[in-house]
TrEMBL record:
GO terms for biological process: lipopolysaccharide core region biosynthetic process. It comes from the Bacteria. Pfam families: Sulfatase. This is Phosphoethanolamine transferase. Residues 288-567 form the Sulfatase N-terminal domain. SUPFAM superfamilies: Alkaline phosphatase-like. Keywords: Cell membrane, Membrane, Transferase, Transmembrane, Transmembrane helix.
Length: 613
């Protein structure tokens, strides 16, 4: 079919407008430091361009026009609000996949509103349809508006913590909040602004009606509108639950539900722990036990574990190991049970493991065991209190006698791990203390995890410092320093009896630790234990077992039982075969798995045959 000159001109205009829309948004993301990533926006390039070109064909309304402006603003609001406010709040990048989801949802919302409006106007009742569309625009912009309002009030983007407050707020608290933060006159002005917005949208929609009804409908146009409606409804149903704000809301709902379920049975689980407190480490060698939970640390990139690694990023640990202290034990073949934090730690901190089929909400925790063993329990975290990455962890943490977080904001703190050191001064050295320190470690983006004085290893020119090997090595170097400070302070001031360090999971420097593209460097983790002379004398059996296991294979979902053994606190909720500190430890490389049973450790190409004890 030969196209007329007018048709050719229209196609060119539609294509240019669609391209401008796409390019401007991509440029916007890049400008605020939130690059969507070519691997995300390239696959959607053609479908988005096609949809944006079909809209003026089907509706007879250009996408950049007064008539389309309310729908365009609604879509753009979803595309840009969270990435922009996140960038302003944290001055760091958000997940590229989430930016892409926001972009798709916003753009498909724009296309859907345009197609729906054109179809509705064919039914007549222009003023009624125009009013309905204005209300839809208002409702569509409600969530971006709430996010922007919150930012203007607190200079911080919405986080799970703030959404939690909104979720639990009643009507009277809402009124008090508005009055205290806005006042009566500003509140009235806001509502007046809403009215003006609705009226302006109404006028624009009347112009839309005039344009779209100027030409008679054709089968091609109506077919295009029907196709766009179906495609965008599908896109909304698939991507809307994955957008940034939906992700935050799901975190809140999940956290509330989990809290209720975990809390209901906690006292019963605690009471079921029957531990002979006269036989525990606290009774035999009183003092402090410290557990440090690392983040995204891989032994592949640590000099103490990989001698041919080019960067000296573990000087303190190397020095301790070189001194030959019999109480300082490095474990060479430790693995994580999964490549993401919460699935790992909800198992490491509780009875639940890959091997026993127990549920998290039915399990006792290391905090419970420490309490029953005669310890005052402490939890200090430099990771967020709320969010999809730490909700289960927080449930365990809040059962401690004392629990504090350096930052209650979004998932990841922007504070350095040395902010945790100050909390150690709260401990009474004359008491038995069990302390958990949860650090940010080497979580992406690596260059954000250490102060400038630890930029020892320089990134090559032209390479991004965000995810480079030198930046990662600097983050490991900083963690090594933090561990040295914790150890030195505890040994001098807190009667340190034992200290354990392990990482939740490892890291692949090209793809981080995404389980969908699994590789074994995501689960190869560092782990070491310090046992004081008093500990070694009080519990020689556990000491000898740990020494003999330095080359044995272990997965960190068995840490709960290992802590039980370390504290000499067996109970009916303890399995000695999963206790790395027991001579009856019953697992070998051939029987261990990672990724919750999906991959045997024998698949690891870098794994060495296990030495016989």
């Amino acid at each position: 079919m030969k196209l007329s000159t007018i048709d050719q001109d229209n196609i060119i205009r539609w294509f240019v407008a669609a391209a401008v829309y796409f390019i401007c948004l991509i440029a916007f993301y890049i400008d605020i430091g939130q690059d969507m990533g070519a691997q995300y926006f390239m696959p959607i390039l053609l479908p988005i361009l096609a949809g944006l070109m079909l809209i003026p064909y089907g509706t007879r309304v250009p996408i950049f026009s007064k008539a389309a402006l309310p729908n365009l603003l609604t879509g753009i609001g979803w595309c840009v609000t969270f990435p922009l406010l996140y960038a302003w709040t944290y001055s760091s990048t958000w997940y590229q996949s989430k930016i892409c989801f926001d972009f798709i949802v916003g753009t498909s919302a724009f296309i859907l509103l345009m197609a729906l409006e054109s179809a509705l106007f064919r039914l007549g009742c222009r003023k009624v349809i125009a009013a309905i569309m204005a209300v839809l625009n208002f409702l569509g912009l409600a969530i971006p508006f709430i996010q922007a309002t919150y930012y203007c009030l607190f200079w911080h983007c919405l986080s799970p913590a703030s959404l939690m407050a909104l979720y639990l707020t009643n009507y009277h608290e809402s009124v008090d909040f508005i009055q205290s933060n806005l006042g009566l006159v500003p509140t009235l002005l806001v509502f007046a602004g809403f009215g003006l917005f609705l009226y302006a949208c109404y006028r624009c929609h009347l112009d839309f009606a005039r344009r779209t009804l100027a030409d008679d409908p054709t089968a091609g146009r109506m077919g295009a509108l029907a196709l766009l409606t179906l495609a965008t409804v599908y896109a909304q149903s698939w991507y809307l639950p994955q957008t940034s704000i939906a992700d935050l809301w799901n975190d809140v709902i999940s956290y509330v539900n989990q809290t209720q379920e975990y809390s209901i049975g906690h006292d019963e689980r605690l009471n079921s722990l029957m531990i002979d407190s006269k036989m525990t480490l606290a009774a035999k060698a009183p003092g402090t036990v410290i557990l440090v939970i690392g983040e995204s640390a891989s032994r592949n990139y640590m000099k103490a574990y990989t001698p041919d690694f080019p960067f000296e990023d573990t000087p303190w640990l190397n020095e301790k190991l070189a001194q030959g202290d019999p109480g300082f034990l490095r474990f060479d073949n430790a693995y994580s049970s999964w490549s993401q934090t919460v699935p790992v730690l909800q198992r490491a901190l509780t009875e639940q493991s890959q091997y026993n089929g127990k549920e998290f909400f039915e399990s006792a925790s290391i905090i419970d065991v420490a309490k029953k063993s005669g310890y005052e329990t402490w939890w200090f975290s430099n990771q967020g209190r709320y969010g999809q990455y730490d909700s289960a962890i927080t449930l365990v943490a809040k059962t401690a006698d004392h629990a504090e977080w350096t930052d209650d904001s979004y998932n990841f703190s922007d504070k350095y791990d040395e902010s945790l050191l100050q909390y150690l001064s709260q401990l009474d050295p004359t008491k038995n203390n069990f302390v958990v320190l949860h650090i940010m470690g080497s979580h992406i983006y690596y260059n954000n995890r250490y102060p400038s004085e630890f930029s020892k290893f320089e990134t090559a020119e032209g390479e991004s410092t965000v995810t480079s090997l030198p930046s990662y090595a600097n983050s490991i170097l900083y963690t090594d320093y933090i561990l040295s400070q914790v150890f030195d302070y505890a040994q001098k001031n807190l009667n340190l009896q034992a200290m354990v360090y392990f990482s939740d999971h490892g890291e692949n420097l090209e793809i981080s630790h995404n389980p969908d593209v699994f590789s074994f460097d995501m689960v190869r983790i560092p782990m070491w234990v310090y046992l004081s002379p008093a500990y070694q004398q009080a519990l020689p059996g556990h000491t000898q077992a740990l020494r003999s296991h330095q080359s044995r294979y272990f997965t960190n979902d068995m840490l709960y039982d290992t802590i039980c053994g370390l504290l000499n606190a067996p109970s009916s909720r303890y399995n000695p075969e999963q206790d790395f500190a027991s001579s009856t430890y019953g697992f070998r490389r051939e029987t261990l798995t990672t990724m919750l049973g999906q991959h045997p450790l024998t698949e690891d190409p870098n794994g060495l045959p296990e030495e016989q004890p």
